[in-house]
Design brief:
Elements lengths: L3 E6 L9 H15 L3 E6 L11 H6 L7 H9 L2 E7 L7 H10 L6 E2 L8 E2 L5 E7 L4 H8 L4
Parallel strand pairs: 1-2, 1-3, 3-6
Antiparallel strand pairs: 4-5
């Protein structure tokens, strides 16, 4: 089954010399060779502001620099995230990216007060590829694998 795939490269260093960039590019190449449609988002190469309040997240507008990325996420049937483990979780830049693109009206619909919001991205599958500079057992023991 051929799919529409969006790859989100979340390493905050825009240098293509990083291992994670090579992994994402190789994944994209393999998916294309298999006949899938692929879009690649390199978060580090997008200039966007940080969200500073819940009100800005709820009522603010998506920065124009992120519209193409949000469109690619909406278009995709399958999402693949690549990022390095930093301090036990994803880098802050990737978190800031997700906060911006996953706004109400795109990722979640407004539920009534006291009720769960509607999941607008339901039906998509996802894969997370995390690189880290420590053995997996140490990550699970020290960080409790919360990331």
């Amino acid at each position: 089954m051929l799919r529409r795939i969006t790859i989100i490269q979340g390493h905050p260093d825009p240098s293509d010399q990083r291992f994670g960039h090579a992994l994402a590019e190789t994944y994209a190449q393999g998916a294309k060779e298999a006949g899938h449609e692929v879009r690649l988002i390199k978060v580090a190469k997008i200039d966007f502001p940080l969200l500073r309040s819940q009100e800005d997240w709820k009522s603010g507008t998506l920065p124009g620099s992120l519209q193409e990325a949000q469109d690619a996420i909406g278009w995709a049937e399958h999402l693949v995230f690549f990022f390095p483990l930093w301090l036990g979780t994803m880098p802050a830049l990737l978190k800031a990216f997700l906060e911006q693109v996953a706004r109400p009206g795109f990722a979640i619909g407004g539920g009534e007060r006291g009720k769960m919001p509607i999941k607008l991205l339901s039906g998509k599958s996802a894969r997370i590829v995390v690189t880290m500079g420590m053995p997996a057992f140490l990550y699970r023991w020290y960080f409790f694998a919360h990331g």
